[in-house]
Design goal:
Elements: E1 4-9, H1 13-17, H2 21-31, H3 38-48, E2 52-56, E3 58-60, H4 61-64, E4 66-68, H5 70-79, E5 84-87, H6 96-107, E6 114-116, H7 118-121, H8 131-140, E7 144-146, H9 164-172, E8 178-180, H10 188-197, E9 201-204, H11 215-221, E10 229-230, H12 240-247, H13 254-268
Parallel strand pairs: 1-2, 2-5, 6-7, 7-8, 8-9, 9-10
Antiparallel strand pairs: 3-4
Helix pairs in contact: 3-12, 6-8
Length: 273
């Protein structure tokens, strides 16, 4: 069965060094000097039987001076064009420049989505400052991936990461595909409700070992949101090999598993079919 990872990080040395010092120190404590290389990313994919993986850029430059550039991600994709898929990131506080950069990243660098991290831009995703970017993403035909739920970036605030805020965006942009990352934990019931009621909203399970995911999420995945669930790793936080191995032990219907592993991704990410 094909497997598509819809959410992973590019934590090469260059990317880690772009973080603010307090954040960088936290990640260095986890990984030490063994920062994952691009070769490590491909090896992890191979071990798990993952054919393609999204890697995301980060732009939170105006608030946190934190940026993993679109160019860095695009270069990683160019080195592995059959395996990696780039998602751009732009900082809404940059106004028209952000909109221009998103279009450039898609049209010139071949990026296939937009990643936004509301706790790092310190805006809820329904803030009208971001709406021009949603319009641009709609015109470009790309999905928007939101960090949702808890996170461990030192000094940031959870209040910006509520899945309920995605509902407002979904209603205002009904043809724009939106992805709630990390199934919005601890607000996973809220995330399932927003996903269920909006045809254009999806969610992923990135960043979690499957055996730690609440049973409620799998029940909904086997039921009313079967067409909305996406596999994700948030590698290197969780290895793809562990995720695939643990998912094999979860009671999922055959069609649910196929949709989670790859079929739903084909509906969300442009150019995969």
């Amino acid at each position: 069965m094909e497997i598509i990872d819809t959410h992973s990080q590019l934590w090469t040395e260059e990317a880690i060094m772009s973080m603010p010092e307090a954040m960088r120190e936290g990640y260095v404590r986890i990984f030490g000097d063994n920062l994952p290389t691009l070769a490590d990313t491909i090896s992890d994919m191979d071990a798990a039987g993952v054919s393609k993986s999204v890697v995301v850029a980060i732009d939170a430059e105006t608030v946190w001076d934190y940026r993993v550039t679109n160019e860095v991600v695009a270069e990683a994709v160019r080195q592995n064009p059959d395996r990696l898929i780039g998602f751009a990131s732009v900082d809404p506080h940059k106004g028209r420049a952000a909109r221009r950069e998103l279009r450039r990243a898609v049209e010139q660098d071949g990026m296939k989505g937009l990643k936004l991290l509301p706790h790092l831009i310190e805006l809820p995703v329904c803030d009208k400052l971001i709406y021009p970017l949603y319009q641009e993403a709609h015109e470009l035909g790309i999905p928007v991936l939101f960090h949702m739920g808890t996170q461990f970036h030192t000094g940031t605030k959870l209040k910006f990461c509520r899945p309920l805020d995605v509902d407002e965006v979904a209603v205002d942009f009904p043809e724009l595909k939106l992805i709630i990352a990390h199934f919005g934990w601890p607000w996973y019931e809220e995330a399932m409700a927003v996903t269920h009621r909006n045809l254009n909203v999806y969610f992923n399970i990135a960043g979690w070992a499957p055996k730690r995911i609440p049973e409620f999420v799998f029940k909904y995945m086997n039921g009313p949101v079967q067409d909305k669930a996406l596999l994700g790793s948030d590698y290197p936080l969780v290895s793809r090999e562990r995720i695939v191995a643990e998912l094999a032990e979860i009671d999922l219907k055959d069609d649910t598993r196929e949709k989670l592993y790859y079929k739903n991704a084909l509906e969300v990410i442009p150019g995969l079919v």
